[in-house]
Design brief:
The chain contains four helices and no strands. The protein has about 110 residues and is an all-alpha fold. The chain starts with a helix and ends with a helix.
């Protein structure tokens, strides 16, 4: 398994976790914290602590995702990634050369008939 594949798997996992953390949040302050407490006086962890945890985890996962993307790009550009992603600049067979135009040595064949 190449390093680029490892970075790709990590990026997908972090992106999935980031989606889950964002979907759990409620923009009006309810979200996960309201489902635990139900608005009563006894709340599991408290509304403020749950909101702070979700906020900090969102920022941490977003930062981790950005760092993983940048490191995988650097890894890919340095050529330590998979061999399929590098471009071979010395490949001269891929360039098609036009076929030579046939020339005739007989002047009568080249002259138009009258």
């Amino acid at each position: 398994m190449t390093t680029f594949t490892i970075f790709l798997v990590l990026i997908v996992i972090v992106a999935f976790l980031l989606i889950v953390v964002i979907m759990v949040q409620n923009p009006k302050g309810g979200g996960l914290s309201s489902s635990f407490g139900g608005g009563g006086t006894q709340q599991l962890g408290g509304v403020k602590k749950t909101t702070d945890f979700l906020d900090k985890s969102t920022w941490a996962l977003a930062t981790l995702l950005l760092v993983l993307i940048l490191v995988s790009n650097i890894d890919l550009m340095n050529g330590t990634g998979s061999e399929d992603t590098t471009v071979d600049t010395n490949d001269t067979e891929a360039i098609d050369t036009p076929a030579a135009i046939p020339t005739t040595t007989d002047d009568k064949a080249a002259a138009p008939a009258e």
